[in-house]
Each structure stands twice: as C-alpha cells, then as structure tokens.
Specification:
With 183 residues, the chain is an alpha/beta fold. The protein has one domain: 2-enoyl-CoA Hydratase, Chain A, domain 1, CATH 3.90.226.10. Helix content is 45%, strand content 26%. The longest helix is centred in the C-terminal third of the chain and has 23 residues. 30% of the residues are buried.
C-alpha cells in the first residue's frame, strides 16, 4: 500500500480509504491494508481505490484472503485502469464503485521461472491450475464458465465501465433470486 487518504470516525464505525495504484508489489507494502482488513468490525467500511496494471499474484491472493476474512464491508472502486491482478481485487469486493472512464482488463497469468526445463514445466502447470481455481472463484460470479475458459486459454477481456456495471447488476440479480429460492 502506498498511501492511505484518511480515516474518519463515524457513529456506526470507521470509514477507511486505501489506494492500490501502480504495480501490485510485495506484500510488505500492504501491511497496513491487511491489518485493517483483519481488524475491521462489522460497522467499518473499507474503500479500496484501484488503478493498477496488476502485479504480484501472491500479494493479490494474500489481500483477497484478508478481504474474505474481514468483518467490514469492502467497497472496491474502479478508479482508472483495473488490469490483471487489479481485476481480481476489484471483483473480490463486497460492493462496487465504478468510475465513469475506468477500464477493466482480465487475462491469463503471466510470468516465468529460471531453472531447469522440467522444473519450469512443473511450476507452469502448478501455476496454471492455481490461476484456474482463483479465476473460477473470483470471476465466477460475473463471468460464464466459457468466458473464464477463454481467458485461461489466452483471450484478453477488456471491459468499459458500462460493461462492468452490467455484469455486476446481473450478479446481484442472480444472487437475490438464489436467496429468494432458499426462503
């Protein structure tokens, strides 16, 4: 985490603003965000403003885990470019704010290792399976299985703010319908 804008006390809890701008780097840069996510109460609201080209999968997974464990309400905000790891963080939110001119981009994982070819092949297969699992869990609320398969197959998805809003509306509607069916 690079900056925290402000923390404001309110009658029903605290509102926090965190900014994930630039490349998602080492998790040590996000200790304050992680601590706040883990310590938040049910009355707290955490805004995560995202404007990033993406970055470290391991750091992203650590933040997503903290988001899932958090008792606070996490509002992810697509403030600008929300690409790669940034899109995972965005779609892992509880509620969403979409900037009028944001762009969201999803793609298959990228990276590589140095070492022996057989080790690289094993590492690549393991990472491919890991990414498939993460994508299905995070993107699965907003994208079809076929779309996720296309992403994992190498197709990049570019979404405008209207595209993102439409997918969120459908996901909310489907969730409400599933809740109604359970009653």
């Amino acid at each position: 985490m690079r900056d925290r804008d402000y923390v404001r006390a309110q009658a029903s809890g605290i509102t926090y603003h965190f900014y994930i701008h630039g490349v998602v780097g080492d998790s040590e840069d996000y200790v304050e965000l992680l601590d706040t996510l883990y310590c938040a109460s049910e009355d707290d609201i955490l805004y995560m403003h995202i404007n990033t080209v993406g970055g470290s999968l391991d750091t992203t997974v650590e933040i997503i885990h903290a988001m899932a464990e958090s008792k606070g309400t996490i509002v992810t905000c697509a403030d600008g470019l929300v690409a790669s790891a940034g899109s995972l963080l965005f779609f892992a939110g509880h509620a969403f704010k979409i900037g009028e001119f944001c762009e969201v981009m999803l793609h298959d994982g990228s990276g590589g290792d140095y070492g022996k070819i057989n080790e690289n092949l094993k590492a690549a297969q393991f990472t491919s399976n890991r990414i498939a699992n993460i994508y299905r869990k995070i993107y699965g609320r907003f994208f079809t299985e076929a779309e996720i398969d296309d992403i994992l197959g190498g197709k990049d998805f570019y979404l405008t703010s209207d595209d993102v809003g439409a997918r969120i509306e459908v996901a909310i509607q489907e969730s409400e319908e599933a809740d109604a069916d359970e009653e």
